[in-house]
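Predict structure. Chain length: 203.
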Amino acid sequence: MARAIDVFSEWAKEGKSEKMAEGHALAVDNMLSYALGSSDGPLSFIDAGCGNGWVVRKMLSHSRCHSAVGVDASTGMIDRAKQIDSSGIYLNQDLLLWSPEEPVNLVHSMEVFYYFLDPQEVINHITQKWLASEGRLIIGIDHYSENKASLDWAKKYNIDFMTTLCIEEWCSAFENAGLKSVSHWLFSPSPQWSGTLIITGKK
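Prediction complete.
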């Protein structure tokens, strides 16, 4: 069994980061559409667990986004992001140890938080250290207890652990961090797939 960040580094070397981006594109579009539609004016952005940086580049193409940073603990993913976009800001950092110099309006994360032993810890850290007042955190996750198709992923992908929480527990973690107006929805469910769980709240 291997650490998730080491598995992701290998996937980046094998060219799988682009396939991951393709697989998550529709859910991320849904998340960003909601986040952008719920505010106006210029915004600053961080992608927590940015992979090859595709969401950072997507946000930088938006007229309202004046800064976008990608942060990922996987060296291979950050190397790949810099290969694709040498002028972008992609940081190889532990999400729990790093903080931006200035807080931002929007923090996004896709398929990351359940790789932490204590997701509450990373949600607290981002809320306290990354988000500006009235800033929004929005995440998407496919591994949660109601999504039965995801429950064997740790074994399937040889990853040492995944923290499995139910929908109510994820929403409570946002509320416990002090986020307000917490809401969630399931994106693109099917009979065999419960959908991507999207959760958001404002500081």
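Summary: Residues 4-202 form a domain with the Rossmann fold fold (CATH 3.40.50.150).
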